[in-house]
Automatic annotation (TrEMBL):
Superkingdom in the source lineage: Bacteria
InterPro entries: FAD-dep_OxRdtase, FAD/NAD-bd_sf
Annotated keywords: FAD, Flavoprotein, Oxidoreductase
Annotated signal peptide: none
Keyword Lipid biosynthesis attributed: no
Species whose genome carries this gene: Litoribrevibacter euphylliae
PANTHER family from the UniProt entry: L-2-HYDROXYGLUTARATE DEHYDROGENASE, MITOCHONDRIAL
Designated name of the protein: NAD(P)/FAD-dependent oxidoreductase
Cofactor(s) the protein requires to work: FAD
Length: 385
């Protein structure tokens, strides 16, 4: 069932809570506001929900293994994972807890596995299992390793079905999402905010008490409209290649991440139909560009990827690697800078009343989305009580 589209009419020109962005984060926030009986409006510049980063990712439900202890990423991923599995079960959203293997291919990487295990434990991820080479072989005959860590609570989800369900929750509460409506101006008022919107060529203004900026890759640019000292955004693209033919793995297969890299290494994930895909890699860009490489650039990337993948999948057939799609991470850290946490900031952090913004919501944003929605609702309730 396609989502209902909604036009802004003069009776809509005030709302209590205005959420910018119908990606998985804006939708989860609006779902939590709706469940709490609050009146809200979601403004989305694309013609449908989830057209940007929320539909250009790996669709992996992460366990919460790698993030620094106590960070938003660690806490919200672990809580969000449990909430997401429960929500998927309640709403019959397609998902599979396939499990993931982090595979070591030499003694140095085996030491890394121990560090990863301790980090996971510190984050409350207590279900990791150390597997011997023989145990890995029994589970995944195509994988070459010296040993591995099995994360049973890592899985995959149909992100589109998930977002469609969130849209249903919002609309069931008589709240609306307005598509093809781009926020172009934000001004403070005595009681909240005035938001200027270009709705298919028509200029409108909406008054709201609370404004929530969940605009993903564009959140920092929108923040420039209401504050100074906005952290710069860095666009970091990840490419995916599908692997044609019958599935060669049953689990998600990740190499041990190389030290000082921004990604997790070229790994293998599966989609709901069992199709294997490899990626994403990491490449910083000056602007948003989803184009897949062609010709010489494509050949070079395939050769580089093949070398990385063959370390754990020696029988890779390069001919079966087909360019698939790209996603762009909204990173707050640039090349060679330390990874940064999500920035979910309210009045205490940025000094502006009745406003929450979410910057740098890269991975594990999909997994954390329900926990992020819950956190934003709690933040608002804290100021309103
Ligand atoms: C390559 C890659 C792989 C990833 N893999 C995973 C994974 O496996 N698991 C996981 O948990 N996470 C993963 N993530 C992270 C996850 O995809 C994101 O954290 C999440 O999708 C972010 O959602 P969002 O709603 O913040 O952003 P978006 O989905 O980008 O939504 C923002 C919305 O705001 C709208 N918008 C922007 N500006 C305006 C404006 N001015 N007016 C109105 N609307 C506006 C946009 O059109 C967009 O729809 C991955 C990310 C990438 C890039």
């Amino acid at each position: 069932m396609p989502p209902s589209s909604h036009n802004i009419t003069s009776s809509d020109l005030f709302t209590d809570y205005l959420v910018i962005g119908a990606g998985v984060i804006g939708l989860s926030i609006a779902k939590h506001l709706s469940d709490a009986g609050k009146e809200c409006l979601v403004i989305e510049k694309q013609g449908l929900f989830g057209e940007e980063t929320s539909s250009r990712n790996s669709e992996v439900i992460h366990a919460g293994i790698y993030y620094p202890q106590g960070s938003f990423k660690a806490r919200l991923c672990v809580t969000g994972k449990h909430q997401l599995y429960n929500y998927c079960q309640q709403r019959a959203i397609e998902h599979k807890p396939l499990g993931k293997l982090i595979v070591a291919t030499c003694s140095e990487e085996e030491e890394q596995l121990s560090l990863i295990e301790s980090k996971a434990q510190a984050n409350g991820v207590l279900d990791l299992e150390r597997l011997s080479q023989a145990q890995v072989n029994a589970l995944e005959p195509n994988v070459k390793s010296t040993s591995a860590l099995l994360s049973p609570s890592t899985g995959i989800i149909d992100a589109h079905q998930y977002m469609l369900s969130l849209v249903g929750d919002i609309e069931d509460a008589s709240n609306a999402i307005v598509y093809k409506a781009e926020v172009t101006g934000i001004e403070p008022t005595a009681n909240g905010w005035t938001v200027s919107i270009n709705n298919q060529g028509e200029q409108l203004t909406v008054q709201c008490r609370w404004l929530i900026n969940a605009a993903g890759l564009h959140a920092n640019a929108l923040a420039e409209l209401y504050m100074t000292d906005v952290p710069p955004i860095h666009y970091c693209r990840g490419l995916y290649f599908s692997y044609s033919g019958t599935p060669v793995f049953q689990h998600l297969i990740y190499p041990v991440p190389e030290k000082n890299t921004v990604g997790l290494g070229i790994h293998a994930t599966l989609d709901m139909a069992g199709q294997v895909k490899f990626g994403p890699d990491t490449q910083y860009l000056d602007s948003i560009d989803y184009q897949m490489p062609v010709d010489k650039a494509l050949a070079e990337i395939k050769a580089k990827w093949a070398q990385a993948i063959k370390r754990y999948f020696p029988t890779l057939d390069e001919q079966k690697l087909q360019p698939s799609y790209a996603g762009i991470r909204p990173k707050l850290s640039g090349p060679n800078e330390a990874a940064q946490d999500f920035r979910i900031e309210g009045p205490n952090e940025h000094g502006l009343s009745n406003l929450i913004h979410l910057l740098g919501i890269e991975s594990p944003g999909l997994t954390s989305s329900l926990a992020i929605g819950e956190y934003v609702l709690q933040l608002i309730d804290q100021y309103e009580s």
